[in-house]
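Weekly sync, protein design subgroup
Attendees: M.S., D.O., the rotation student, P.L. (late)

Item 1: inverse folding check
M.S. brought a backbone from last month's batch and wanted to see whether the design step gives back something sensible before we order anything. D.O. pointed out we never logged the input encoding, so this time it goes straight into the notes. Structure tokens as presented (293 positions):
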């Protein structure tokens, strides 16, 4: 009996959070190592379904870099990276679209459906959800040459978001699952960083939270210790001093811009932890780094 009462108490602990977040949108960037194990994948799917059932509106944006890399490798196609962006020629873009918008996206949709949720997969093209433009990167091609403008090919950034299709899906209790592939007004397709897409979607939806899942415990300081809470100003300093670099940069940019656009809080959490989503949303302390305005 005691055990059962304990269970009831655990359920009750989530009540204040359910009350606070019911009817609100939480955008979740899902990717990297949270996607590699069967166990983590099904726990993620069930977490998201639970959110939906208690009245919270999860919107999933996923990455898939490792899956793209594997496919390109099988095809014998080499790619290089400039400042974390995969240089994407037309042939590579076809592979990116097939892997992200096809395989990875449908796997996540199928998993949510399998566990009893309702999900619909989308790219930026579907329902005109978002538009993109070509990204030009300022940097050095190789070694220590002078900085120049580098054309990474079909790599884009989000220009506008039209969330109508998300609202329509919401009316039917469908969980949107979004692949970071977008199109410009001329019909060119672009590969976009999933963190950036998640940030743009969270801003457009005025989400309650943006939750970025990654393969580290959160933002680490210069000693490698987890920073559990910080504001935009402290974060900008960490970028300037290069304590934050590489793949963490697009997350920080997404965090800063979504906070500026009315998102209440951003969390960077370890996707390798089972039930990272529920732990972050339904517990007092959370698990990763919380970024506040
Ligand atoms: P994903 O987008 O799949 O989560 P990325 O490799 O793109 O993975 O981004 C996460 C990576 O960012 C970490 O694995 C880490 O190597 C890097 N990183 C750079 N600076 C920091 C920092 N200050 N704290 C934590 N991770 C950092
Ligand atoms: Mg990344």
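Designed sequence read out in the meeting:
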């Amino acid at each position: 009996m005691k055990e059962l009462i304990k269970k009831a108490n655990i359920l009750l602990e989530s009540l204040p959070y359910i009350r606070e977040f019911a009817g609100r949108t939480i955008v979740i960037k899902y990717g990297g190592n949270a996607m590699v194990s069967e166990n983590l994948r099904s726990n993620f799917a069930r977490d998201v379904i639970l959110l939906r059932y208690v009245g919270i509106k999860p919107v999933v944006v996923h990455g898939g870099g490792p899956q793209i890399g594997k496919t390109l490798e099988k095809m014998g196609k080499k790619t290089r990276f400039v400042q974390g962006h995969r240089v994407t020629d037309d042939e590579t873009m076809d592979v990116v679209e097939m892997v992200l918008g096809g395989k990875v996206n449908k796997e996540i949709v199928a998993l949510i459906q399998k566990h009893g949720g309702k999900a619909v997969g989308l790219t930026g093209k579907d329902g005109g959800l978002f538009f993109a433009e070509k990204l030009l990167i300022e940097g050095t091609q190789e070694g220590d040459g002078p900085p120049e403008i580098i054309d990474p090919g079909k790599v884009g950034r989000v220009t506008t978001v039209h969330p109508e299709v998300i609202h329509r899906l919401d009316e039917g209790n469908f969980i949107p699952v979004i692949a970071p592939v977008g199109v410009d007004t001329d019909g060119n397709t672009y590969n976009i960083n999933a963190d950036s897409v998640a940030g743009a979607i969270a801003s457009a939806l005025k989400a309650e939270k943006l939750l970025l899942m990654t393969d580290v415990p959160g933002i680490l300081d210069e000693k490698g210790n987890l920073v559990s809470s910080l504001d935009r100003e402290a974060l900008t300093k960490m970028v300037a001093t290069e304590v934050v670099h590489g793949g963490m940069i697009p997350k920080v940019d997404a965090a800063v811009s979504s906070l500026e656009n009315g998102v209440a809080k951003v969390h960077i959490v370890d996707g390798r932890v089972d039930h990272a989503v529920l732990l972050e949303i339904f517990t007092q302390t959370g698990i990763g780094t919380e970024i506040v305005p």
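Discussion: Residues 90-114 form the longest helix (25 residues). DSSP finds ten helices and 16 strands in the chain.
Action: P.L. to compare against the previous round before Friday.
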